[in-house]
């Protein structure tokens, strides 16, 4: 499986070393992991101009690493989003990346399970997983809120959520969740 790790960790965070271990385990399982260090990419936050939907369908009009991010995401089988929690939410680096992949869906809406969601632009979308580095005071309520937000984002971006967990979970469990159909 072609697995893209979106590393939303600022420099110096312990998450970086943990992701190296995860990549090694994924390779051992026969997967092909790639990693994008979001902190090293150059793109601005989404400006909400909707040009990617109206003027230039499927592509952001601002030429930067946002196009690379979209290409890497849509050509993957699985996305593992990894970030430390900062004030109870995954890093702004990860949130910005999620905002920038909006060109991957259509602006048009359809009903799915009695809810309005954007239509697919592509035939297939990668599954998602979220790996969080907890803060010192992270509690179950914090994790439940993040779980709800990212599960809803997966639906809106036409993906399925395979796992949401913290880095204190053994990575063998993460691998099992990735391998599960």
Q: What features would you describe in this structure?
A:
- Strands 1, 2, 3, 4, 7 and 8 form a 6-stranded mixed β-sheet that branches. A two-stranded antiparallel sheet has the order 5-6.
- The chain is globular, with a radius of gyration of 16 Å.
- It has a single domain, classed as Rossmann fold (3-Layer(aba) Sandwich).
- The protein is an alpha/beta fold.
- The N and C termini lie close together (12 Å).
- The chain has 5 helices and 8 strands, in the order βαβαββαβββαβα.
Keywords summarizing the entry:
181 residues; alpha/beta; Rossmann fold; six-stranded mixed β-sheet; globular
Summarize, please.
The chain has 181 residues and is of the alpha/beta class.
* First-last Cα distance: 12 Å
Briefly note the structural class of the backbone: alpha/beta
N-to-C order of helices and strands: EHEHEEHEEEHEH
**Mean residue pLDDT:** 92
Q: Helix count, per DSSP? A: 5
Helix content: 25-40%
Q: CATH superfamily assignment?
A: Flavodoxin domain
Question: In this structure, how is the largest beta sheet organized?
Answer: 6 strands, mixed
Stretches where pLDDT is under 50 for at least 5 consecutive residues are none
Overall strand count: 8
User: CATH class, please?
Assistant: Alpha Beta
Give the second-level CATH assignment, the architecture. 3-Layer(aba) Sandwich
Briefly note the CATH topology name: Rossmann fold
Large-scale geometry:
globular
Radius of gyration: 16 Å
Provide the domain count. Answer: 1
Percentage of β-strand residues: 25-35%
């Amino acid at each position: 499986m072609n697995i893209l790790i979106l590393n939303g960790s600022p420099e110096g965070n312990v998450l970086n070393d943990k992701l190296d271990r995860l990549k090694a385990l994924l390779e051992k399982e026969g997967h092909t992991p790639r990693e994008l260090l979001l902190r090293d990419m150059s793109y601005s936050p989404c400006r909400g101009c909707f040009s990617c939907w109206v003027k230039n369908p499927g592509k952001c009009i601002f030429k930067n690493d946002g196009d690379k991010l979209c290409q890497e995401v849509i050509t993957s089988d699985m996305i593992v989003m990894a970030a430390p929690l900062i004030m109870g939410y995954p890093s702004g680096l990860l949130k910005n990346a999620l905002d920038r992949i909006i060109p991957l869906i259509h602006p048009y809406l359809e009903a799915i399970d009695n809810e309005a969601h954007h239509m697919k632009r592509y035939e297939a979308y990668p599954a998602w997983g979220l790996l969080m580095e907890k803060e010192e005071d992270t509690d179950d309520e914090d994790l439940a809120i993040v779980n709800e937000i990212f599960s809803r984002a997966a639906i809106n971006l036409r993906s399925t959520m395979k796992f949401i967990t913290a880095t204190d979970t053994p990575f063998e469990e993460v691998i099992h969740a990735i391998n599960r159909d």
